[in-house]
Specification:
CATH architecture of chain A: Orthogonal Bundle
Strand order of the largest sheet of chain A: 1-2
Largest interface: A-B, 17 and 29 residues
Radius of gyration of chain B: 17 Å
CATH topology of the largest domain in chain B: Rossmann fold
Distance between the termini of chain B: 34 Å
Number of domains of chain A: 1
Largest sheet of chain B: 6 strands, mixed
Largest sheet of chain A: 2 strands, antiparallel
Distance between the termini of chain A: 45 Å
CATH superfamily of the largest domain in chain B: P-loop containing nucleotide triphosphate hydrolases
Number of helices of chain B: 10
Structural class of chain B: alpha/beta
Number of domains of chain B: 2
Oligomer: heterodimer
Helix content of chain B: 25-40%
Order of helices and strands of chain A: HHHHEEHHHHHHH
Chain lengths: 290, 233
Amino acid sequence: MTELLQFVLSGVTVGAVYALVALGFTIIYNASNVVNFAQGEFVMLGGMVTFFAWQAGLPLPLAAALAILAAAAVGVALNKLAVERARGAPVVSLIIITIGASIFLRGGAQLVFDKQLHRFPAISGDEPINIGGATILPQGLWVIAGAALVFALLYVFFTRTLTGKAILATANNRVAARLVGINTDHMMTLSFALSAAIGALAGVLMTPITLTSYDLGVAYALKGFAAAMLGGMGVPAGALAGGLLLGLIEALTAGYISSVYKDAVAFIVILAVLFAMPQGLFGRKSTDRV
Amino acid sequence: MLSVENLRSRYGRIEVLHGVDIEVRSGEIITVVGANGAGKTTLLRCISGVQPISGGGIVFRGETLQTVPAHRRVALGLSQSPEGRQIFTNLSVEENLRLGAYLFADERVETDMAEAFALFPILREKRNLAAGGLSGGQQQMLAIARALMARPACLLLDEPSMGLAPILVAQILDVVKDLKKRGLTVLLVEQNAYAALQVADRGYVMETGRITMSGPAEQLIADERIRTAYLGV
């Protein structure tokens, strides 16, 4: 029982990060129909920029804020310099552009920073907390709380503010959005900034546990994408469910079977779900988005 | 108020508007009638700025529109209820109306919404439901109400009668007449020529991307050629 609780705790921690990355995929997908494979690089930038700013003497909270802003700026640049310019191109071309951007960002990080693994101190120390016999790092609680806060804030943003609704309207019907006076280009840019900031926050929160390096974006992009597909691409609640589920499956497989198989089992479960429900768990049954 | 001069537009390499001239004066209801595929919707899309033009020009209240992006044209006082309604299906009726007034954040938004509900009471009943669940006629009402929320000086209406029962067509055209009484200028594009010419002051007949006839509505409605080609009598 204690064992199970332990696996669940670590699964939820990792799952919360996957959920944040999946949320980033979801926001950009909704705004532009593009699956942004550079999403993982925002996670990497969050950790790396924080570390190097902190090493340069900045207090950690300031370094983290700087990293999130820097990632948001990179997100805006990605939209303005690459995605927006290819407007009207087939979605597949846009996706390839984001893959290119991710390779570029990884290469850039290698040059600007370095190829080492880095870590900065956790927010409230590294003394494990005992919960019913199982333990969780305080940073794990920060990760879970951070993800919960982001989802709550975004829920309020999309349901209570006019700008949030304008993003939803742009996603729902772009021409109609322009006809009511919404600047849909701005909404796209805002979506990229938001996604990048969320990804970077995930990176900041996770680094004290998993460390960071220039090339960890690929793994996060893959897991976040899988989580988004599992939950249903384009549905924020699906991103949350998909992320947590993926984290739990991984942790339970690693615990009860072998950590060697955790990725394999996770992807087999995802394939099984997608065979039965191609829209994902929460996906809408629309087929017009090809 | 709105003048379209020698307007040309193309989809890819195929030109669909071959030089269209239209003049809309303040306070008028103008209708453009014509068969399916004549280019009427393209004309309105050009005026709203969601369809690129390849020649000619559009002037609205003294301002040249060609270089003005679509969202800025709404701010100038041009608002459209598009063909096929194009409502935000995932959002509620009330959210659709609120987004119609996207450019505004004052108290008038509330009074405008109350006015829209007075115009189409069924929308008040369904205000919290997803717009995608409304019937075709209700969606049409929502599209018109949403366009009115933008406080237009000139309202562009694209096929408001499409797919509606005759009683609903009459109801919607009554609303158009009502709007004219309040001083709104309306450019109404319709396949249902008879209904449109009954409420309009002047009309244009469009055929394969060109204006082939124009004049006062009662004159067009009496014209032998129009009667046989469009009115089915």
